[in-house]
């Protein structure tokens, strides 16, 4: 990772995975449709802290520590799944005029961190990136830091792009039937997301 060409290659490599409609992107859009982009900022920051920290850990080989207590990972994944299902039920049951009644506060930093940690796709992405852009024989601290910061920046752009999309959709389609339909669609997508995370975790 010594030239701009290396960073361009990294961006092209991770773009399809990061900007595709995965769990964290769908949650960003869903939260912003309810609370607006500004109300979603702590949630997004929480998710992206859990991009940066695992990226550093994987890069420096600390991911092997999970082997000492694999139950910790499972507990965190189940907590993330439970929170996603809670959001799904809230969206499904909320009527347009009650849009903010079922969730008085937007999801916060801790919620974002838990959800992102439960996302197996994120760990797979890290392993793919380091297998392509890091020399497995030597740990170059500068390269690990550069890759970690680059991935975090791309993740922030991705999450906020989806948040803007969710907020825009909510503003443009603000009739009662349209809002109700949006809520139901988000609820179904979030249920499917939690099922996907669970199956990946068990597999």
UniProtKB/TrEMBL annotation:
GO terms for biological process: cysteine export across plasma membrane. One of its GO terms (cellular component) is plasma membrane. The keyword Protein transport does not apply. InterPro entries: LeuE-type (IPR001123). GO terms for molecular function: amino acid transmembrane transporter activity. It is found in: Cell membrane. Its main location: membrane. The chain crosses the membrane at residues 41-63, 75-93, 113-131, 143-165, 185-202. It holds the Pfam family LysE. The keyword GTP-binding does not apply. It comes from the Bacteria. Keywords: Cell membrane, Membrane, Transmembrane, Transmembrane helix. It is a multi-pass membrane protein. PANTHER family: ARGININE EXPORTER PROTEIN ARGO (PTHR30086), ARGININE EXPORTER PROTEIN ARGO-RELATED (PTHR30086:SF20). This is Threonine/homoserine/homoserine lactone efflux protein. It comes from Roseibium suaedae. The lineage of its organism: Bacteria, Pseudomonadati, Pseudomonadota, Alphaproteobacteria, Hyphomicrobiales.
């Amino acid at each position: 990772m010594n030239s701009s060409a290396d960073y361009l290659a990294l961006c092209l490599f991770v773009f399809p995975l990061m900007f595709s409609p995965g769990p964290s992107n769908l949650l960003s859009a869903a939260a912003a449709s309810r609370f607006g982009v500004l109300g979603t900022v702590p949630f997004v920051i929480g998710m992206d802290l859990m991009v940066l920290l695992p990226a550093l850990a994987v890069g420096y080989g600390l991911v092997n520590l999970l082997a000492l207590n694999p139950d910790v990972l499972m507990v965190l994944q189940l907590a993330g799944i439970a929170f996603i299902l809670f959001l799904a039920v809230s969206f499904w049951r909320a009527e347009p005029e009650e849009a903010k009644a079922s969730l008085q506060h937007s999801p916060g930093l801790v919620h974002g961190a838990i959800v992102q940690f439960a996302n197996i796709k994120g760990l797979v992405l890290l392993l793919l990136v380091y297998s392509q852009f890091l020399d497995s024989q030597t740990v170059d601290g500068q390269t690990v830091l550069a890759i970690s910061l680059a991935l975090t920046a791309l993740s922030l752009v991705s999450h906020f792009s989806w948040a803007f999309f969710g907020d825009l959709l909510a503003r443009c389609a603000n009739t009662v039937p349209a809002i109700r339909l949006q809520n139901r669609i988000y609820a179904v997508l979030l249920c499917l997301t939690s099922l996907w995370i669970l199956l990946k975790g068990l597999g």
